[in-house]
Structures are given as structure tokens and as C-alpha cells.
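Note to self: keep these together.
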Amino acid sequence: MKMNVLKYMLILVCTLILVDLRASTRVRDLRCELLDNPQTIDRQQPRLSWKIEASERAVKQTAYHILVASSLEKLNQNVGDLWDSGLTKSSNSISVYYAGKGLSSREAVFWKVKVYTNKGESAWSAPSSWRMGLMYYKDWLGRWIGFDGYFPSDNKDSGQLSARYFRKEFTLRKPLKEATAYIMGLGLYELYINGKKVGNQVLAPSPTDYTENIKYNVHDVTALLSEGQQALGVILGNGRFYAMRQTKPYKVKTFGFPKMQMQLMLTYLDGSTEVIKTDDTWTGTADGPITANNEYDGESYDARKEMLGWANAGFDDAQWMKADYVQEPGGRYEAQLNSDMKVMQNIAPVAITKKALGRYILDFGQNFSGWVKMRVKGTAGTAIRLRFAESLSDGELFTANLRDAKATDQYILKGGDQEEWEPRFTYHGFRYVEVDGYPGDLQKQDFLGRFVYDEMTSVGTFHSSNELLNQIHQNAWWGIASNYKGIPVDCPQRNERQPWLGDRPTSAYGESFLFDNTLLYEKWLEDIRLSQKEDGAIPDVAPAFWRYYSDNISWPGTYLFVADMLYQQNGDVRVLEKHYPAMKKWMAYMRLRYTDKDGILTKDSYGDWCFPPASIEEGRGKIADKKYPSALISSAFYYHLLHIMERFSVSTNNAQDSLGYAAQAMQLKKDFNERFYHAAGYYGSNSLTDNLLAMYFQLVEEENKDRLAARIVEIITQENKGHLSTGVVGTQWIMRTLTEMGRADLAYTLATKKTYPSWGYMIDNGATTIWELWNGNTAHPKMNSQNHVMMLGDLLIWYYENLAGIKTETDAFETIKMDPSFVSGLRHVDASYQSLRGEICSQWTVDKREILWKIRIPANSKARVFIPASAPAAITEGGKKLGKIEGVRYVEIQKDKVLLEVGSGEYEFKIKR
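Structure:
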């Protein structure tokens, strides 16, 4: 019997990299749906995954059969000439490692899967595919070219360079079968073939420490070529390669002038091949229309200098220079497996205000990152200046919080017909744009906001009966997306935009419920690993564009937290295996260097960074950039990290290390309590953060837990009058600590406050993202971003795991723990999460008489469902009493909850109150 499988989603996963390649099959309508641009990878043992969707309940995979072939024809004949797994008994559907023949550079690979379940056998899935990248250094046949020097149009002091333009012509003399472009354009590039831009990516490639690794992009350009004369064109911008600021070489890492290496691999119908590569036959110029570009300061474009047809065959480049051979950057060449940045959404202005002297201010109604696209008609030489800001002050742009970032674009008209323009090599964080010099009467339709972030799927939805909770969720989504830029940056607007580790120990975890961000964070883990010094030190910023190695624990500890999140949510142990040695080295470095005679880890740099001033007035005009180092924080974090390393050591077959980590943790707990516990029932300075860490990390002795819990509640309810008082450290743990203490009601109170300090206060004061500071409307502008993620803490985790009850318990949602907090005052929650196994849904409604709870569990998963009832008799499912209901098994009563185990499928529980 074949089960009624509606669809398979085949997900190709490289070593440490998740690449989503979707192909669908229907039993009644089998068809091939190869992707137009198969993902390029450069790993020999990718991980293969698939999703099973079935209408029946309690579907569990028992075996699979994978075929991997060198051609689609062979695969369609059920010939796995590269790998035939045979019928393999296993429930694993998310981490099957390719175990076939060795794969060669540029090789195309095709695969499909058949699954066997307790309900029957499926048909073969539709094929999916991937292509191997350039696996070896010698596969790159060209040379690095560029201009290692300044041009008259460059501004050395400001960090602004004019864009470099390069071109090459060649001839296709016979019919073409396939053409693939491989390019490393640093810092940023745009590739053109016969005048047309290749791809819809922007700000490519993803930034790295270019002395360590360089990402290359691959493009199928077959459709852009035909027989005859052809032309290649590349524009290079600064990006992170030529640093935005050159005046502090001791702090800011720079890599040199823009440069590139590329090759166009041509395969003809007759089977012959040809390579067009970068060499000294290319020509170049810096005298083009992009006269300046810089991520902080903006882009300047003089349309009068446009070179019509510069990327087309036949263009007269007699005045261009011969391209120079230049020094290679030095890093390893790697296929970019994380997503490109793209224009993900267009945003129209909601209001235009005309100001004095012919200026206009556009309001886009939403803080976001990107730029604007402009339409204009006017006289040649007319200069239009666009200035960007997050907010207004007395009706004018408020730019003090940008520090010295100019955040200004300039466009000079060429004149004549209507002109359209948008920048290429910059982005801004903004809601408002001041337009100065615009000819004529500006209309809304003349401008369009372009929201730019890493292309990734939104995987989570959340809606509740509390509109403030919903708005905070929406603000979080916009802020998170705005700060995905090939690395997770702290903010998109001022002269910083750095991948601070301290911003994301737990917020990355929360983000994973909103976005399919696995690729980004796996890439970031590699950035962190490569930034580690030989002695073990890990920086506060990675890649280390800023040389900040402060040797604290809470910031670099993010390395372990993010790895834990990726393993927990996605189940690929190789993310731990690859990074375990570097983590072990860092842990030893910190212990040996910073343990005092009493066993306390003394090194902390920031303390509870950006904790709120006692009142909004007390913080008015005050600079938040103040550090309050705390040995309690460093010791508590190190203790928690020891337990994480204990788990990692077992998972990575380094179990011999686990005893050492457990012993260290046991001793540190003893030393911690001797140093920081007070007989009055609190820790350290008696701050909320100090007490939260002791409670959540289980540093408090069992006999003191109740007193500590009471102290935490007292601080919030009495001293803080129902508010939090935590900075970036304490906010990471506050919502889950309260919930685990049995005070989800108090967590809900914090989440729904509108008075200072709270997330609701931000919204009541005009925020459309999340502020950097709790008092972001009154603090000194030196450090006052209005689009940050660090103060989200564990709020989003609490939304999904605690309010909705969607939490993995084992093996990346193979077993799901569904134990929602039915808090008083919240009548309804409706949430979903698209896990690797399929969509998980939890929807509950509460009234005086009953709770209605609908859940959906994906095939090949099960759930432990905790229902607030004193006895099974109070529960029905689908209108039936518990007993012999398909897919539902009664387990036991735990405290005041009935524990059920359910298989995959949809369920509707009613609980009498």
C-alpha cells in the first residue's frame, strides 16, 4: 500500500550549510521540477534532507532510499551511478550525509528520494539538483586585477573612492551549450554581460575577513550569450574591502583597493570548452558616473559621466587603462552558500512635507534599511541631495545619532528625458529622507523605498489577542531583517554596522523562529572561528573589521550559544564537530588567564550593558556608552558555558572531555556561591540581572531557590513597579526564567507594559523597530540607534516556546514539547513555525468555560503535549473522550497538567475549566 503523500520538499544541505532546494511531487502527477539555478556548493559530503507531508496521523519514517546520479537521464531511469543508498532503515529525514563517489569541480549532481513509513511507501520524489563549485585553488585560471592606487576623483581622507569599471570583449564562434560565470569582486561588484546585469543580487558578495576567506558567486549566464562579439563588464565598489574609515589603522582593518578575479566557463554544443578569464587584456577606468561610494556616507552619481554601452561589444575604450595585475587578498576561496542580499520589498512614502528653500522630507512610515529609487526630469548638472535619518526633531532630520556617517546620496542629472536612479554600493537605515535640489514639484510616485536584506524565507507567524504583543513581534521582524547584511550587524544607520557578538547570544535563537537564518549563522560561526587568535582569544566583533579583543566572556560566549541554537533547531552535529576545537581552545584560554585564587572568572568588559536608567528623566541626555564590568556575570556565563561544552563533548565523540567540564562546573558553582550569595537570599549587588543569572543557570542551591525566586519577583513587582531593569545580559534570560519559576503571568506583564522601561514604551513613542536603549527617546545621541536587536533578549523565544508551546525537545523537532503558558489576560494565540520536518502549528483560545487548542505536528515528528487539566476526563479531542483516539496516547499527570503523546497530524483539544 502506498500512503497518500501529497508532497516532498527536498532540502540539500552541505557540510555545515543548509541549502533549501525545493522540488515537489504528487503521486497522481509526477513531474520534474529542477531549479533554474541549482545551488553551487564546494563540499564533498553534503547533507540531504526532505519533508514528508501526509494526511494520515502518526506517520513515522522507517526507511529511505536515495539515488544520486550524474545526469537527469540516469536518475529518471532509477540509476544512482554516484550513490545508491539502497533501502536504509532509519527515521532520519533531516541529516543524511552523501556517501557516494568523490565529486569533481563543476560537476552537476541530481538526486531523489523514496521514503517508507509505518503507513506505507511513497513514490519517488521529483528530482532536485546541485552543482559542485570550484573545489581547488588551481581551478581558478585567471589572475587578480585592479588598480592599486588613488585616482583624482577619490577622497582618501573620507574613505570614499570612485567605482572601478572593467571590461573585456571576446568572440563566440560556435553554438553554445552552457556558460557559467565565477566571480570574486571585492569589496562589492556588479557583473554585466552584453549590457545586462547578471542576477538580481545586490551588495554582493557577503563580507568576510578577506585575509582568511573570500566568497565567490556563481551565475548561469547562458541566456545572455549568443554567437558573435560579446562583452563582459564589472563595476567594483568599496564594500568592507576598502574600509569606510582609514584614519584609525590601529582599530579599523582595511584590505586595500577594490580588485577582482573571475572566469567565464564556456561549454559548446560540440563538447569543446573555453575559458574567458581576468588578465591584463581587460581594460579599466575610475572615471565613471559613480564618483564616490561608501557604506557609511552614501553614493554620489554624476549621470553626465555615464558611458553609454560600456558593457556592450563595440564600445570605444581607447581612453581606458590596461588593468593591472594586483596582489591577491590571501584568503581561501569559498562558494557563497549563505543567501545574497536582494531588494526584498518596495515601500512607498506615506507622506511628503515641503520645507523651506525647496526641500522636501519624505516619510516612509517604517524604519528599515536600504535606499530609495528616484525618478526625475530636469536640466543637466542639477544636483539632488538625499539625506537619510531614522527620525525628526522639530520637523527636520535628526542625524546626531549617526555620528560622523554622512548617510547622503547625490545624483547629478544628465538632462533631457526622465531619469531613474538608485545607488549600487551603499545602504542606509532610515524612515525619513530629505530631498534637496529636486527640480519641479515632487510627487509620492517619484520615490520608492527599497528594503534590502539577505534573501531568506520567513518561517514563523505569531498573532495573539493582545495587539501590543503583535506590534512588538512586527517591530522585531523589521529590525531583524534590517540588520541581515551577509553578517548580522548591530545597526544599519550610523558609522558602526558591525557584527557584535554581544548583540546576539539569545536573540539569534529568537530570530530562528522568524527567519530561515541557518545559512547566515553558519557562515557567521565560520567568521568567528577564523577570527580566533592563535592563543585562543576571540574578538567582540567578527569578522574583526574592528580590532576589539577585550577578552570578556559574555560577548565571545555567543560563539557557543549560536552553535547550540543551530544544532538544536537543525540537528546537524557537524556544526559542533567543526567548531568544537576552537571553542575548547577559547574556554581553556579564558580559564587559565582569568581565574583568580578563589576560582572566580574575573574578566568581563561590559557588565549588564545598557541597563535602563532609574527613570526616563535620569537618563535624559546621558551617554549610554559606559562599562560596568562584573565578575559575577563572567563567572555565571562561564559556568553555563561549561555545561554547554559538556553536552558538545558528548555529541562530538569527545566524551573524555565531559568529565573535566562537569568537574570544573561543580567547583565553580561552589566558589560562585561562596563569593556572591548573600544570606538574605540574593546574589551579587542584588540587581535583577545578578539574580536572574543565578536562577536560570542553576547556580543557586536547591534550598535557596524559593528565597531567590521571591527576591526576583519582589524586585520586579515592588521596586520596579512591574517593569524590568535589565540590560543586554539580563534581558536574554528574563522571560524564560520567570516562566520556569511558574510566573509566566509576570513575564506577560513585562511584555505588555507601555510605560518606561518596556518594549511597549518604544512603540508608544513612535518606534517601528526595536531601539538600542530602553530610553532611546531621551538618551544622548552618541549611542542611540533606533534599529537594533540586542534588547529583544529572549522575548521571541518566549513568544514561540512558552506562549505558543512550540519547542524542540529532541533531534531538531523530532520530539516537540508543547507546554504553552495560558496566561490570564491573553485570550488567544495563533503561531506557526516551519521546521525542517514541516510546519508546526499551535492555536489556542481561552474563555471562562473551556480552552480550545488546535495543534499540527509534521510527519516524522511527535509531540509531548501538556494540557492544563486535573484529569483526562476533562479533555476531548475531535469531540471524543481520551481513550482509543488514533495518534493520541495518555502518559501521566504531572502536577496540574495531563501529559499526552501525539503523533503527526492535526488535533483539536477541548479542555473544560
